[in-house]
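Hello forum,

I keep getting stuck at the same step: I have a sequence, I want structure tokens, and every attempt I make locally crashes halfway through. Rather than fight my setup again tonight, could one of you with a working pipeline run this one for me? It's a single chain of 240 residues.
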Amino acid sequence: MEKLETKLKQLNLGVLRTKNILDSGKRESIKQHLDALRETVWESNELKRAAEAAKIELGESVEKINDWNNEIDAKIELADVEIDQLESWLAEKERSEHLVAQEKQFNVELKLHEKRMKMKAELELNSKATRMEFYDTEVRALEGNFKMNVRMAKVETPELLTINNPNYEKLICDYNHLGNVVIDDCDTKDRLPIHLVLGNGEYAQIKTSTKPVIGGDHEPVAEKTKLGWFIMSPGIDFDH
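Reply #2:
Ran it on my machine without issues. Output:
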């Protein structure tokens, strides 16, 4: 019993020191105090069980032993409360440090990403600047003698862009007003590449006196140019 009383006094002293140790904010001191409290609680419980066994051997009543147990447990539970506070402080400290570390890592990675993107943009700009070439050439019609001089910029890419295949053959069959339109492109691929883009100036050169072929509302419009027929949307996507 004397050993238990001594251990409980030691435990109480540890409980009383907890607030000051937490206020210090020193993680190592807090961790050491937590370990000491846990050990003292464990030792107190061991001594309590030994004392309980001695009381039973002496023939004390169950009621008295239960009352005694409740009194000892109340003292030990005070330490359990402090242990919870110490554990919570350490867990929150670890979480905060983890968040700070994550934020630092994120900032480092963000700066690296920004640097990579800047370098990539500079490389692409320099690459485009060095690879851009201009050529004076002719564009000729498939039929007839029409040709025009154009200045072309060479771009180092397999294709400028692609479009959904309009399926010209089906398009002409679906719209009666396109019956006399002749399109030489019968490609069946889902996407068609565009290798040459003409500007407004070139468009003015290829126009003819032939009036555009116009159907009903929201139907495709066809126009014959010096380079051949082309079909365009009337301003919205048409069903084809």
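Residues 236-240 have pLDDT under 50 and may be disordered. If your local run keeps crashing, start a new thread with the error log.
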